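Q: What does the assembly look like in three dimensions?
Context provided by user:
Components: three
Sequences:
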Amino acid sequence: MDFVKQLQSPTLAFLIGGMVIAALGSELVIPEAICTIIVFMLLTKIGLTGGIAIRNSNLADMVLPAAFAVVTGIVVVFIARYTLAKLPKVKTVDAIATGGLFGAVSGSTMAAALTLLEEEKIPYEAWAGALYPFMDIPALVTAIVVANIYINKKKRKEVAYSIGQESFSEQLVAAGDYPDQKDYPSSRQEYLSQQKGDGDNRVKIWPIIEESLRGPALSAMLLGLALGLFTRPESVYKSFYDPAFRGLLSILMLVMGMEAWSRVGELRKVAQWYVVYSVIAPFVHGLIAFGLGMIAHYTMNFSMGGVVVLAVIASSSSDISGPPTLRAGIPSANPSAYIGASTAVGTPVAIGLCIPFFLGLAQALGG
Amino acid sequence: MDFVKQLQSPTLAFLIGGMVIAALGSELVIPEAICTIIVFMLLTKIGLTGGIAIRNSNLADMVLPAAFAVVTGIVVVFIARYTLAKLPKVKTVDAIATGGLFGAVSGSTMAAALTLLEEEKIPYEAWAGALYPFMDIPALVTAIVVANIYINKKKRKEVAYSIGQESFSEQLVAAGDYPDQKDYPSSRQEYLSQQKGDGDNRVKIWPIIEESLRGPALSAMLLGLALGLFTRPESVYKSFYDPAFRGLLSILMLVMGMEAWSRVGELRKVAQWYVVYSVIAPFVHGLIAFGLGMIAHYTMNFSMGGVVVLAVIASSSSDISGPPTLRAGIPSANPSAYIGASTAVGTPVAIGLCIPFFLGLAQALGG
Amino acid sequence: MDFVKQLQSPTLAFLIGGMVIAALGSELVIPEAICTIIVFMLLTKIGLTGGIAIRNSNLADMVLPAAFAVVTGIVVVFIARYTLAKLPKVKTVDAIATGGLFGAVSGSTMAAALTLLEEEKIPYEAWAGALYPFMDIPALVTAIVVANIYINKKKRKEVAYSIGQESFSEQLVAAGDYPDQKDYPSSRQEYLSQQKGDGDNRVKIWPIIEESLRGPALSAMLLGLALGLFTRPESVYKSFYDPAFRGLLSILMLVMGMEAWSRVGELRKVAQWYVVYSVIAPFVHGLIAFGLGMIAHYTMNFSMGGVVVLAVIASSSSDISGPPTLRAGIPSANPSAYIGASTAVGTPVAIGLCIPFFLGLAQALGG
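A: Here is the predicted structure of the complete assembly.
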């Protein structure tokens, strides 16, 4: 019953609608320029929301839980990188994107937890809800950076391999058999000249992080975050970015549904791994956050209700902020993998199993 | 007085504004990507409105009037196809598009009728207003399908003719005079190979219907209809698709005004036929619906007020849902023909003459 | 304190944000189709606002002050054309665009003046605020026309020069050395044939004015103005163009910030002239309007409060309507010049110095 209701929510409805019309062979096309501006507006809005929430929160009180939220968001991505991605035939970028989505936070899952805490009369800090951007944004940034590092390493390997392969042809070039060098791949040229300077074969991490932060997705999100933190964008946020959010998201979900449909076949041999991951991961992520929350509970008097909130936002996976960010930040990742894992399994597990579990755990420990 | 007011409504004002700036040689251009997304949003909204209205209505009560609305919507298109389109020099696609617009429903004409019924204290079913999508959407779908069937048949004839013409050149090809066959039209190649399989020369209707339904216009409208019927898109409908509708429509009307201006010359020799059609058609369409409504009156106790509503929505022609749908669905049709017929003649006739006529008829028969 | 608040306003915040992310090398791109439609919507909205304000105002009462507002708006542009543009190394188009921005009106500067007048209990006509479109729109139109005349004259000179240069090559052509004339610049051909008809070398002004009015920027603004004046677009204005304005402006300001950053280097040798102009111009413009206002005061009994309003809107420079108009109307002008001059110096001078100055002047003269 509740599951049907969930499927009828506009976000999911448009996603499924996109899959259905793609399956029926619709010729509907949303122009790329429109997708670009929608992604820009969605990510700017996500950044603005986070920035305004952080600016309005009392950082002194929440410094330790906030730091733990950041740590959890980052750790969740690395867990996916070194578990899900290592499973047979699972594509690494898909696994990293899935980790990013599970690190990001679902507002509605958090809202369900807050409602339940109030019903059970378990007290929690008023700012507990403001913890979510501290986990959400670092998780998505980490996923994009880690994916870009992986993609770069892979490219280098391929180039190195192709250099080995081409050694023979290079001798031919030297011998004058290929007088025309116009088609010489410039990227390899760059690589070779770079090699001279470097003197070694390691991928430099920092330039890739810089590159990721400069990409359109993280630029927009961090711009929104900075504007939310340091300026007063409330008027334009309330009149424009916030009201347009759900509507623009519905269009993008339709596009992602069509894209997901065209790539759903890739999941044939790996779907079971995504199911296994999506059932276990919410508990693992929640337990990490719960453990860190208990440290804050004993050292800073962080309430048990707050610990539950931290655990629940860790076990939740984003249906809202995540997909547009990952689509723009890791375009090669398969949306049917990461959205499928999060929406079809991760979110029901988080809402139906993790919330009662962490609530019970808190009552057992704290009561 | 009322006519001036009508012209000042935003929808018409932007249409006329577009014609004026086109006449003055403005270089204003609305990018095609923007027109595409506007059409998508308008048609999705039209579908959503219809779908939500149908979901919220009690289908059991209204099954017969709703079926009659569907029938009327379809019949209206075929009337235009076999009357207006047969008049000398009238282009068939323009006539079919005009039929689609006259089959579609004007919300404001319907609202005028409902107001008058209330003033005259003639009772009608509360769900009578919900009959409009049952006429509106089938009429537009039928128009697009019928136009595509016509265009396909015409192309086949031209190909067949050109084959006859080219038989001589084909002999030359066979004789080796045209060694380079790269430019051979692939569509004809397809046609020839298709011919082999078919063994006859008839146009297959079903693939064209499928093709029409898969096109961007009907995809978006039927997607909206399905989402409105089977999911709960109210939140995104109320916050996004509905409030943006009039504004986006104003931009598209401006574009259509500019397009209509550039093609108004085509109407020089046929304008009189459009005037004749636009004066007679509202009465004919209304009488068909009135007759069908009387059947429902005698068999299902459908109120006389409801019969009037059905007749009025049949005599009305759409200024809102129709133009964007037809622009996307039958791009070759001349907007100055169909919008001119509907706006300049059809709508004033429907509001000023048909509403009082059908009201009087109902009072004469039912009182 | 107030300066920091000003910088935190969404419009400026997004402008600075755009400069910062451009400086950091962000790869964020807003598609050109999106910029086009944003500019269209902003300029249509500016025109609609002006048109509706003029339609709702009692023109008979305000005819002289309104005429003086128009005169001031036009004069301001010519002042910039013959002072700022003549300073060493200042680019003429940049100077004209800056003049246009200083002729256009800042709504918030005007609001500050109206508030102060009320606090000081100085009476002014209720329609005084409606004077602003009479100065705003003529200033922007004049700037675009004057810039286009300048650009045309410059092109003619270059062509004339290149004809001199090419006389030798033309002899070669005549001698048969250049058999292929395909690449012959068509614009010069046009020029030559035009020369024959003209018989002289003067630039014709009227075709350039027509051309400017037909351009996308002024087309949209004048369309909005006409629709606001002659039709009833209030419903679509209130539901669409007005609420979307600030949000769309924020996106365009971001784009203009990125563009301004890439051209800020051009200002290195001329920045001091822009500072000098931006400090002096608000006083000069205000005094002209104040003088004209005094004429209306003595002849038509225009209140002293109204004279102050007229002077303040003349000394203000537009942060809202100006930038999008000039970006579309004079694309070659450097936004870091005109926005920098207006925002960084002109507006603070107008608010902080000109408002008290003209208020004191009115009290000294009128009290």
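Follow-up: The longest helix of chain A spans residues 132-174.
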